[in-house]
Structures are given as C-alpha cells and as structure tokens.
C-alpha cells in the first residue's frame, strides 16, 4: 500500500453534494482519486459543482426524501459509473424554532430528510457492498448529536438518531466487510451556519467562546476527515463518531 489515504478505484455517492459540507467532502474524495457522484435537487448547483470538480465527478438530480426511489437512484449510478463503494449521507435541512412552536409536520420533515432518507439509501447500497465485502458508509452527524442546543429540537433528534444507526449498522455489517462511521462537525463556515448565527450575535460569540481553537472550521476540514475515515488508513475503524470541531466537545 503506497498511499493508505488513497481512494483510487472507489466510487462515492455524496448526498447534498452540490454545496457546503457535501462539496467539501466531494472535493477531498476527488483529490484522493475517487470517482464521485453528487446527489441533490438543484440541477444547476450540481452542474456548477461538477465543473469545479473535474472529469471524475458527475451528478444525479434526485430528492432523497422520495424513499421509494432510493433503489432506482443506486441502479442508475451503478449502471452509469460502476459499483458504489462509498456512501456519504450528508443531505439535510434545518429549522431554528422553539420546541413549543415546532409543528409535527416540521419535526417529521427533519426526520424524513436526515434519518429516513439516509436509511433508505444505506439499505439500497448495502447488498452489493456486502456481496463484494467492501464498502464504507459515512453519516454526517452534528454537535447536536452530542449535547443540548436550544431551538433545534427536530434537528437534534434527527442527528442523534444517526448515532444509533451508525452503531447498529456497524455491528450488523462490519463482519461483511462494510464499515459504518460518522463525523460530527463543529461550527463550520457554511450557508447553513450563517443562517443560524448571523441573526444571533450572542450565540455566535458563545460558539466561538467554547471552541478551543477559537475559530470556525471549513468544509475542507470535514472533507479531509471524511477521506481519512473512508480510506484504507481507517480499515480497522467502524462504529465511531468523530468530532471535527476545533475542541468544542471537549472545551469548557
């Protein structure tokens, strides 16, 4: 093994891959030698991302919340590009609202996107990965998976559910050569983070105040960590949740 961090020969499916953390992950995957297929609802955003990434990237316009179409998406990608060996469940939505004002429909929308959609795609790629005895599935969790954050009850519930999925799936499928892990990003400079913090300067100060490194992270930070976890360098790592957070989860 000349480069244990290489993804040469791998084909990755990255949901929510057209921007933000998904694009950061896709960029690092391409740099590590993988073929990458971006998945999202906005065709123009996906086209622009693929142009940025180069010839080893392509895209599929798809709404992950259409759960009964997960297998169709996997078949389209497999027929066009080849077997999917890496899956990154990154697609998500966000809602900042007091719990008492959050409707059941809003709550369920978050669970549908983060949990049910991720499970459906995972279920769709697993049979081939297990047959090949080779694969890596990565969930993008959150600081909200690890401790209480106000005004995001639905988002926190969804991201906490990722941890249960990671642990259970890892126990089930790791004996078949498929690793399952998660990254819990800290506060990463992204459109979603700015939406959450720009209107709340006190919260922004609080976040930086408890971040040991005293700065926000970047999408590249998440991409590099994802590449590590999906590469042969982490071949004995499964069922873990890796905080990439500048020390937020251990700071005081």
Polypeptide structure, described:
With 252 residues, the protein is an alpha/beta fold. The protein has a single domain, classed as 3-Layer(aba) Sandwich (Rossmann fold). It contains eight helices and seven strands; from the N terminus they run βαβαβαβαβαβαααβ. It has helices at 20-31, 43-53, 70-80, 104-132, 153-173, 191-197, 201-210, 219-230, and strands spanning 11-15, 35-40, 57-61, 86-89, 135-140, 178-185, 241-244. It has a seven-stranded parallel beta sheet with strand order 3-2-1-4-5-6-7, sandwiched between helices. α1 (20-31) packs across α8 (219-230) and α4 (104-132) packs parallel to α5 (153-173). It is globular.
Give the gist of this structure.
This protein has 252 residues and is an alpha/beta fold. The chain has helices at residues 20-31, 43-53, 70-80, 104-132, 153-173, 191-197, 201-210, 219-230, and strands spanning 11-15, 35-40, 57-61, 86-89, 135-140, 178-185, 241-244.
Can you give keywords for this protein?
single chain, about 250 residues, alpha/beta, Rossmann fold, seven-stranded parallel β-sheet, 8 helices, 7 strands, globular
